[in-house]
Fold these 2 entries.
Entry 1:
Amino acid sequence: GPEYVRAIAPYQAGKPIAEVAREYGLDEANIVKLASNENPFGIPESSRAAMLEAAADLGRYPDANGFELKTALAKRYDVPLEWLTLGNGSNDILEIAAHAFVQKGEAVVYSQYSFAVYALATQGVGGRAIVVPAVDYGHDLDAMAAAIDADTRLVYVANPNNPTGTFIPAAQIEAFLQKVPARVIVVLDEAYNEYLAPEHQFESSAWVRKYPNLIVSRTFSKAYGLAGLRVGFAIAQPAVTDLMNRIRQPFNVNSLAQAAAVAALNDTPFLDQGARNNADGYRQMIAAFDELGLEYVPSFGNFVLVRVGDDDGAGARVNVALLKQGVIVRPVGNYGLPQWLRISIGLPQENAAFIEALKKALG
Ligand code: PMP
């Protein structure tokens, strides 16, 4: 195989509950998983009902163009259907963008400590990564704009960012978009957008109207609670969307996922409940970190990055101590953050179980 494929370090997903139960001799029912930024409420009831109905038609292929879902999204974001691309999770969107716009040897710009899939998508097409040093664990957009060279085809920006939870205000994003040459595609990855407080929300689809090189990426995996179904989508102008739709798999979003996403999209009570729980849970987490004197990065997502020790073994060591107590979180050594752990915000009792286990783990 190509050398650039052999150089890829595989994505490290959160450990599954069943695996941890077996490995540490624990009862699955007692395990708390706060490792993958999943929605602690699970799938919305409205989506469950829609899936049951859609199940009757599983002998057929999914709608290759996702007509109903795109229609619902078009209405919600006030864009034509031709501006939408569906993905098998937004992960798929990130990869489709690389496939559609980057050739072997061309460059992709992204930030240090930004989402791991940017590196994977870049390497997957034999692209050259330009990794721009972070500032305060977040994107340095001025440096990222300056890093764009003649070979650069794509820039990934995560807002909020995973795993650090940092957020870039609207004015800074817009200033950045104005600096990026029109020949360079910007993927604005807004996987955690729905967790932002109203004062931080902005109409990113309005920017798509203004910037023909912008792709806004969203997901149903987080606030909408459909991580297991794999649905994401992109909003971009038709010329860009057309290319993405040529390169994507024809049936990349399955029938159950399409039906569930339509239902979830308009389930405002579910979203509101999730946002409230997340805000409360975040306060619960950082109160504990303050009490324990632990440094954390202020987060705008449904997770928080906390520094659990001063030595480079700290993250791995505390992670194992938590696993032994049945709490699964995410070590981020692969991001170059070996002293830190990323904790997803769960239900109040899950957060409490984590905090108790953390206190024991730290001795
Ligand atoms: N972008 C960011 C910043 C993420 O954290 C994630 C999930 N970890 C994704 C995209 C991809 O999520 P999904 O494929 O489930 O939409």
Entry 2:
Amino acid sequence: MSNPSLLILPGDGIGPEVMAQVRRIITWYGDKRGLAFDVSEDLVGGAAYDKHGVPLADETMAKAQEADAVLLGAVGGPAYDDLDFSVKPERGLLRLRKEMDLFSNLRPAQCFDALADFSSLKKDIVAGLDIMIVRELTSGVYFGEPRGIFEEGNERVGINTQRYTESEIERAARSAFELAMRRGKKVCSMEKANVMESGILWREVATRVGKEYPEVELSHMYADNGAMQLVRAPKQFDVILTDNLFGDILSDCAAMLTGSLGMLPSASLGAPMANGRPKALYEPVHGSAPDITGQGKANPIACILSFAMALRYSFDQGSEADRLETAVEQVLADGVRTADLLGEEGVTPVSTSEMGDAILAALDASL
Ligand code: NAD
Ligand code: IPM
Ligand code: MN
């Protein structure tokens, strides 16, 4: 049998910097654990625009459809701010999500013990935190029609449409309940049913799907209250189910509970392929971080933990995913810190590649 295929799309800004560390870890798994992947690399975002005039070439899209999993760094950056909307780097990522039909975006927020002091919240509020945000990723206001900027009388109007079908809500909800069954058996669904019809339907469908999972406790919360509760008492949550836009915002908010946006991985999963595994793209939650690009300061952990999620969700290698997550935990416990994680006096930050060195050493020590 051939090796599983991995398509790597480093993208822009710190994307290639953090992905370089992931590539070392992929090589380590091939050398030391006999887990070889057929790795290919391609362009996305501004890097693809520079070469092809579009943020995702059709050939790259086709490769992504064929791959067993896609790993993406980040897209975007100030150099591309003035591009026409249709070719902005972010459109490349959105095309991947839409055409691969990656409807379920898993964004775990876990606070490693060693970092409980780094959150902007008090230590006892975040210590031991382990929540999972399930963000619907292929619909809602990100994709709804009509959309655009139109002339209306003597001024312009910008329009986006929040739109959800029952089946779109249902499949996202089902993935949240399935996850909850393997975790703390609680789902909190967040919408704004008080002001949005799509929210009313969301609540109704989530409730209906929930009846199939009698062991899971389902609660509902307005998303604005949810944002407040996430910073007030985040440990009340197990799985949070929410739509595309609320999920985008709530997951950045959850990032700070873990100490840094540089820590948060994600998995975007679709329907099962012929081999039974879901179509999947893995990427850090953070962006291209133009303010620190090219300085060796980027924290590669979010991208590395995204590869751990790939091991778990695409390659059935849960214990190897545990090994990688434990190596990261060990390195943090040893006090190794990139600049985004500084807080303690007298600690000198390590560079992106030194963080990679430390994680590889911890992996070696795990053998
Ligand atoms: P960002 O996530 O790029 O940066 C926000 C802040 O967090 C910055 O101060 C940055 O230095 C810091 N940061 C982020 N990741 C870090 C890491 N790994 N290590 C250390 N510090 C880190 O968000 P932004 O500044 O709002 O957006 C910049 C660009 O990235 C925009 O073009 C945006 O559209 C794009 N973006 C892309 C993605 C993606 O590719 N999935 C996600 C978010 C934003
Ligand atoms: C994210 C990002 C993306 C989003 C952008 C870059 C399209 O913010 O993955 O969180 O809004 O979904
Ligand atoms: Mn975001």
